[in-house]
Specification:
Elements lengths: L9 E5 L3 E5 L19 H10 L8 E5 L4 E4 L3 E9 L3 E2 L2 E2 L4 E5 L4 E3 L5 E8 L36 E2 L21 E8 L8 H9 L2 E7 L3 E5 L13 E2 L4 E3 L7 E3 L6 E2 L3 E5 L1 H7 L7 E7 L1 H13 L3
Parallel strand pairs: 12-20
Antiparallel strand pairs: 1-4, 1-11, 2-3, 3-10, 4-9, 5-8, 5-10, 6-7, 6-9, 12-19, 13-14, 13-20, 14-17, 15-18, 16-17, 16-19
């Protein structure tokens, strides 16, 4: 739904580098070559939704870097979580991690990153649009999802409606934090890790890496020590969220929500789902370290986060 047929809500007056409709993702379709999409920082989207009483995976707006300006056509309560992108309501600062009332005619604007990279704006009941393959998640490369099913970024003149009534105010039960100067990312070892030489494995987990400027919703490149793998050619295989591929140049690529569904580079393993959310908030040049954890540890941490929303 997009244009005059959509109920009154928010009107896009200015677009930034990238603002997308995203929910919890698209599942059960990777055998068709369709990737999952969804909010890169699903924890921040979940908390923004929690503030409004929505389901954690309800569709909201993922705002990367900033620059977005919205005008309200109706009065309601909205919520922000994730990065601090200098959000203002009619010129008054808005901090992430809280809900706020917006009146018809008021303007919500986002400036530049103060901390983190992606903010999430939730609306009552989630964004009102027609799902594609069970999800509203926008995947630009595959041209699916979003307001009109074409997977495009929000554009000037788009109207964003919502499915629910104005909720009561809620306060977060936890303190939210964003990546610091150095961020630790947990990794479940597996796949082809045994084929990397000892010096490479030591370097992978004991030396810092830097987030490269070549980063998007598909994946993030790291720069640092060169990792060497003894495998020759590989048959392509399924790629999970957070897969840590190592191409011939020895510099890892951490694959995220809009990744390809299969790949043929050797892998150290995969980041945990929670580690992926922190990576999504790391600016280019940020320092990170990889930390090996067991599948049980990763699953326990994931369940703990999901339980907070119940």
């Amino acid at each position: 739904m997009n244009s005059s047929s959509q109920p009154a809500g928010l009107v896009v007056e200015r677009t930034g580098p990238l603002a997308l409709v995203e929910d919890g993702g698209r599942f059960g379709v990777r055998h068709l070559g369709v990737t999952q999409g969804g909010a890169l920082d699903w924890v921040s989207l979940g908390w923004a939704n929690w503030l409004l009483g929505n389901a954690p995976d309800a569709a909201g707006i993922e705002i990367a870097i900033g620059g977005l300006a919205l005008k309200a056509e109706a009065t309601t309560r909205l919520a922000l979580a994730g990065a601090d992108l200098g959000a203002e309501l009619d010129g008054q600062p808005l901090a992430p991690g809280a809900s706020f009332m917006i009146e018809a005619g008021q303007r919500l604007t986002f400036g530049q990153p103060v901390a983190g990279l992606r903010a999430y704006l939730a609306v009552p009941g989630g964004i009102d649009a027609e799902p594609f393959m069970g999800s509203l998640s926008s995947v630009m490369r595959e041209q699916l999802g979003g307001l009109d099913g074409q997977g495009r970024a929000l554009g000037v003149g788009d109207r964003i409606g919502w499915r629910g009534a104005t909720p009561e105010a809620r306060e977060l039960p936890v303190s939210l934090s964003l990546p610091d100067e150095e961020t630790t990312l947990e990794l479940v070892a597996g796949a082809q890790i045994a084929h990397f030489d000892g010096a490479s494995l030591f370097a992978a987990f004991n030396q810092p890496w830097r987030v490269d400027s070549r980063a998007d919703r598909m994946g993030v490149r790291l720069t640092g020590p060169v990792l060497r793998c003894g495998l020759g050619g590989m048959i392509s295989e399924g790629i999970p969220l957070g897969a840590v591929q190592v191409p011939p140049d020895g510099q890892p690529i951490l694959l995220l929500n809009d990744r390809q569904t299969v790949g043929g580079y050797p892998r150290l393993g995969a980041l945990t789902p929670l580690a992926c959310t922190r990576l999504a908030q790391c600016m280019p040049g940020s320092a990170i370290r990889l930390q090996a954890v067991t599948p049980w540890q990763a699953s326990k941490a994931n369940r703990r986060q999901l339980d907070r929303w119940r």
